[in-house]
Amino acid sequence: MNALFAFEAAGRLRNFSRAAEELNVTPAAVSRMMQRLEVHIGSTLFRRSGNGVTLTEDGQRLFESTSRAMNLIDDTLTEIEARSRDADVVTISVSTAFTTHWLMPHMPQFKAAFPSVDLRFQLITGPLTGPVNDVDLGMRFVSGPVAGHRVFPIMPEVLLPVRARSYPVADAPHEGTIIRLSAGQPPGVGDPLDAERATTLMFSDYAIVVQAALLGQGVCWGWLNVISHWLREGQLVAERQSPCHVTDRECCIIQRNRHTDRAVVDAVREWLIAQMQDDYRAILARYPDLGIPPLSASG
Questions:
Q1: What residue stretches are annotated with the HTH lysR-type domain (predicted)?
Q2: What are the pLDDT digits (tens) for 25-65?
């Protein structure tokens, strides 16, 4: 193996002395290794001259193969070093609303479970769509298989009409203030209150919609994957006069098919799913009359 390293350096530099300097050996040592290599394979690899060396036809063929192999080894070592250095970095693609209203309140538990993991975010302010090719994990609403990816279901896509506990219940049903999302609401989902009898606030970022509800500004549709923490803590409550809305999609973790996935990525994925499903079951138990579907048997 040392002879091949020396051969690659000599063939690339066209000079035994310069190859010896690069390899931190003597020129005589390089010369001896090349002579032994030529004897071993039974072919002359170099033409020697006072100005250096040139490759023979056989030498050029061996140099091209050796050079490709050395480059592959170097690339592989670089990748291994990078993966080792970033072993505890996990990148996730999630919405700003989920990050703000579910993940941040759960960060103490996450850090306790993964003290050395550095989470990095690809944040989505609009509808929860788009590829997850450049991240380890992505949260998406899907209704079937995703080509080239593994799909890990968490919960059905469920929307509940919610308000802050401090928000006054209107004397007449369906009166009050509606907090709307300007885009991204599933088809067929109307307003949680009677639009003709209610005033309206509208925001383009769902994180702000939820924040406005938390501050007692009105009633909004709450995606259960985002608001489950606040419902469980009692800072948001469901409007029992309006049933939930269930779509044909599921909230899932999407993971690109790779042969080199790291164990820490799988562990973070399973932690997220377990925590979110625990919140879901707690909300289902608290509001059994709103039509929230149970988790599937796999969940």
A1: 1-56
A2: 898 999 998 998 899 888 899 998 878 889 999 989 998 88
Tokens for 201? Answer: 């606030």
Is 298 contained in some domain?
Answer: no
d(CA 16, CA 119): 49
Q: Tell which residue, 157, 132, 158, 115, has the closest CA to residue 261.
A: 132
Answer yes or no: are the C-beta atoms of 271 and 113 closer than 8 Å: yes
Are 234 and 146 in a shared domain?
yes
| Predicted confidence band of residue 231 (pLDDT cuts 50, 70, 90) | very high
Indicate whether 128 and 56 sit together in one domain: no
Say how many CA atoms lie within 13 Å of 264 toward its Cβ: 17
Question: What pTM did the predictor assign?
Answer: 0.68
Assess whether 27 and 168 both reside in one domain. no
Instruction: Specify which of 97-101, 195-199, 256-260 reaches the highest per-range mean pLDDT.
Output: 97-101
Listed residues 27, 50, 85: the one ending a domain: 85
Three-state SS string over 1-34 comes to CHHHHHHHHHHHHCCHHHHHHHHCCCHHHHHHHH
The answer to whether 219 and 178 have CB atoms below 8 angstroms apart is yes
Is 169 found in the same domain as 46?
no
Domain end marker among 60, 85, 110:
85
Range of the structural domain that residue 282 is part of: 90-286
Looking at the fold, whether 138 and 198 belong to one and the same domain comes out as yes
Once rounded to an integer, what is the mean pLDDT over residues 212-226? 92
